[in-house]
Amino acid sequence: MLWVMQFSGFFSAAMLMIVLSPSFQSFPPAEAIRSSHLHAYLRLSSYQVSSSPYSPLDRFSFRKASEFGNADKCRSTDHKITGVCDPSLVHVAITLDVEYLRGSIAAVHSILQHSLCPENVFFHFLVSDTDLETLVRSTFPQLKFKAYYFDPAIVRNLISSSVRQALEQPLNYARNYLADLLEPCVRRVIYLDSDLVVVDDIAKLWSTNLGSRTIGAPEYCHANFTKYFTSGFWSAERFSGTFKGRKPCYFNTGVMVIDLVKWRRVGYTKRIERWMEIQKTDRIYELGSLPPFLLVFAGRVAPIEHRWNQHGLGGDNVRGSCRGLHPGPVSLLHWSGSGKPWDRLDSRRPCPLDALWAPYDLYRHSH
Ligand SMILES: *[C@@H]1O[C@H](CO)[C@@H](O)[C@H](O)[C@H]1NC(C)=O
């Protein structure tokens, strides 16, 4: 668990402390992290470097992650988990895209590091390239996972050209199809973006009460909701009328807890696709995969504590800006925005908080 206390003034002093939990055993102590005046002072462990340099993808080589195991308290020690339908599993879905692969691997690594019961976590990887499965296996030999090939043809006809090319990668839309892709026995899933790390036990997020809602996510009701849609959208009652009777708030689709049973029953995939169809003819928004989610779910989201999505850490690469954390506890750090920590670390111009991503990086530089 990570706590942030922000004191007075302009980014002036933020102090981070990782409170060691029993699940943190594979990490030596000395996780006292202090960041002040935008300089981070970090003492972080070095990893054991594996000696098997096997990689199916030429561009990538990852170190083998250290082994992980359940703490005594984990319920599954009573029985052996037999398959993806086991009710004691925590299901996590992440995309594995060549572009963001290093981030996805770090995200998985962070989840395992902070879980009291890492053997109870089952990963569902949405992949664009089937070779990635071999890479995952060699990096996390004991991992429970399944890879699902996401056919870009599913969305190609639904994607309109957008200002930001990166937002138009077909895999960005894979989250729309989780209810169809995953096994019917999987009743709930946590969807996570590839540019984040989890610094708390994912089981806590898993046990979120969604009430009558289909999805849960941290909401940001102070954000200007208007700007996510075009003026054409707001002036056309047949479009903007969809928000009638709702109090829509922005939420980030990079961290969502989804009730797949309700999703399948209502058929939300079709509702999202219907808005994507409209976008092809009537440009109702600018961004990619987010607005259809807002259209269908904004104002109908089970609110999750903001600690589970400290977003925006990517900042703006063009202006080279770095973002700080919002005050309050932190359970998940999300580098949304155009800058990514691995790029900035490689270019030796990191933002201070990128140092919080680095310990989860398993990428092996070739030189
Ligand atoms: C919200 O954004 C819209 C569109 O960008 C703008 O016209 C409006 O003034 C903004 N509202 C506030 C309260 O900032």
From TrEMBL:
Q: In which pathway does it act?
A: Glycan metabolism; pectin biosynthesis
What Pfam family is a match, any one? Glyco_transf_8
Cellular localization per UniProt: Endomembrane system
Molecular functions per Gene Ontology: glycosyltransferase activity
Q: Where is the signal peptide?
A: 1-32
Keyword annotations for this protein?
Answer: Glycoprotein, Glycosyltransferase, Membrane, Signal, Signal-anchor, Transferase, Transmembrane, Transmembrane helix
Note the Gene3D superfamilies from the entry: Spore Coat Polysaccharide Biosynthesis Protein SpsA, Chain A
Predominantly, its location class is membrane
The EC number on file is 2.4.1.-
Gene Ontology CC terms: Golgi apparatus
Q: How does it sit in the membrane?
A: Single-pass type II membrane protein
Give the family this protein belongs to, as stated in its UniProt record.
Answer: Belongs to the glycosyltransferase 8 family.
The identity of this protein, by name, is Hexosyltransferase
The organism's taxonomic lineage, starting at the top: Eukaryota, Viridiplantae, Streptophyta, Embryophyta, Tracheophyta
Q: Which gene encodes it?
A: LOC107953058
